[in-house]
Amino acid sequence: MNRNGAPPKHTITALVQDKPGVLNRVSSMFRRRGFNIASLAVGRSEVPDLSRMTFVVEGDDRVVEQVTKHLHKLIDVIKVSDISSENIVSRELALMRVKANVQTRSEIMQIVDIFRANIVDVAAESLIVEVSGDEDKVDSLQDLLKTFGVLEVMRTGTIALNRGVGVGPTRQGEKATDTWGESSSI
Amino acid sequence: MKLNGSQIVCESLIKEGVEVIFGLPGGAILPLYQTLPEYPQLRHILVRHEQGAAHAADGYSRVTGKPGVAWATSGPGATNLVTGIATAQMDSIPLVIITGQVPRAAIGSDAFQETDTTGITLPITKHNYLVMSASDIPRAIKEAFHIASTGRPGPVLVDIPKDVFQEEAEFRYPKTVDLPGYKPNLEGHASQIKRAAKLIDQSQRPVILAGHGIIFSGAYDELRELAEKAQIPVITTLLGISSFPDDHVLCVGMPGMHGMAYASLAIEEADLLIALGMRFDDRITGKPSAFALNSRKIHVDIDPSEIGKNIKVDVPIVGDLKRVLRKLNQQVAPTTHLEWIQHIDELKREHPSMNIRDTDKLLPQYIIRQLSEATGGKAIVVTGVGQHQMWAAQHYVFTEPRSFVTSGGSGSMGFEVPGAMGAQVGQPDRVVWSVAGDGGFQMTMAELATMVENKIPVKFAIINNKYLGMVRQWQEFFYDKSYVATYYTHNPDFVKLAEAFGMLGIRVTDKTQVRSAIERAMQYSGPALIDFLVEEEENVYPMIPAGQTIHDLIEEPAPRKART
Question: Of the candidates B123, B126, B180, which has its C-beta nearest A78's C-beta?
Fold first, then answer.
């Protein structure tokens, strides 16, 4: 259990055939077996005809072991990795429509700056903030913007990759202080 | 060579060695049917209901080890197959199912007889295909047979739109499959096998739990070698029945909800469970948190997702049982577990679960025992689901592999009629007895016509208690004998029904008539039916109620007489 009393989250990636119905097979398996997906993101991979999926799954180790095994069992799934315990980079993109007027606009811009987020649309009564980072960072920004009024939120779900090997302990150390899920080298 | 889609399907099936197809035509699959006369080597058996086709293909597969093939048209044809496909999926039976689909351009338009067949069958197949071009048919069928029959077997469905059957394409059957996401692990991890051998050598009270996997893998000799070499008692699961001879001195029978009390007690008291190709189903474990707490567990299965799913194991081995057991047998030291085996013999004496009450009444258990003796344990026994299924599992002495055919995981009533038909088609020279319930029999009895038509000489023993007996038993035990919707006040006259279908029908109401009726049915050349009007409120004992433990075992209350 994590600090909220919720089951721990695991990040699992899968390399899958880019065929019609594959997402359906995957999501059907999760639904049928009662596994909880916190987020799911899919996109083309570096290999033609293969896609990569990133799942954030809630559950204890036994549940996650079953999730990976049942993913593996799907014929169209080629490779499954539970990368939760590894040194990973995880990112999510979010767009948030926030209530904003002349009085609040500059305060919002300051917060957006601190989060290294962008304002991508400005209208008379609202603006759209674009932010990327790990889930915690996006959550934090969303929480802070709540005081102004968050009208609409669109999040992509987490995508993740292992960090490269051979860079050494600096990366490890960097991750510990990398509270926003970013590092200067990215 | 250019062929149309229908011809490509037939050519592909011939390449896969298919001999028989169970099916029923309809609009979307009609082009395929109209091609059949060109392929006399493909025997088609026209069923009365598509559920019958799927169950028959299943029964065929269970007795031959080959994939069963069934096909049907789109829409209701496909949905009628669903129970049969789910039954096969739950029991890991290799089937290749072909369904017609509406023409490509009509897909998604709610066209006449359109259903989303691949969508409906997605969670109840090992894999499925919607083939959108005739040139893709050979690869889809090649992969379907490969996936269905390798690894942990299962049903694979191939959905083909009507105009794809009519489209022409070059026919070239692939020699190999290219499935980067499907590589079953067969060998078993060497160090885990070593650990398993060590645990076996150290154990004082080991038992083997032999499941369906032994049968799929054909690891009968290897199982026997392990059991005999290290003198380990063998318990067979419901679907593991016939993987180890019932008359072997080390056979301890079936455990679980309606298993032999001594088998469940042996599991409880064991210090090592060697689970081979079984999946710790809830009918075996009861309450999983209280299951076999005194033992370490070795679990060998070809499906990694079964390991650790229901029960935590100490030594997991993923692989094909025949290969794994061969390696394991080399490493296990010969030994005797004399004390342990004597203790199990004692349990057998103290809990004689298989005795039959001494009475003049016509008891189902007595009928099964007579059937076992009359056939010398050599018949193929196909059952439905319920009390009669449990009595067949308990009282028939199975001595040959692949001779017990039953819907285990799915518990599909009605399996007994088409399942037996398929079994007889697969093993035409063997005696096939369908032990049927009067409830399940009426769900699928239309296939009697198919059997008469095709001279498929199945013998039926209807254990007719006029009740949906197992449900009634639960009502007796757990709902104060409130028999809601379980009594059939107007069952048909099964003997007249048999005659109407063109079969031999015999009615038995008295114990003394049992043996002669069985002999008469077997002497008859065609399909025959015996309507056994049995004791109506007979219960299956012993019983461990659902979700409970061996300590909640209900043993038969009636006085016993020693087994002769």
Answer: B180
